[in-house]
Amino acid sequence: MENLMIDKDGLFFHIDFGFIFGKEPGGKGKLASKIRISKTMIHVMGGVKSPLFAKFEKKFVESFI
Length: 65
Known about the structure:
65 residues
């Protein structure tokens, strides 16, 4: 995987700021998903109903705003 960073506490996060601000990756056009997060990333966080995934969503929104 590309564009991932790990913070001092061992948490990882995606850092593709070009994508966040609307620069669509080439080759996929309208078929590209709007959020790049793999099933493996969700699994590591404990699934979509886990507290860690809720924290991820909250931090994502905060960073975007």
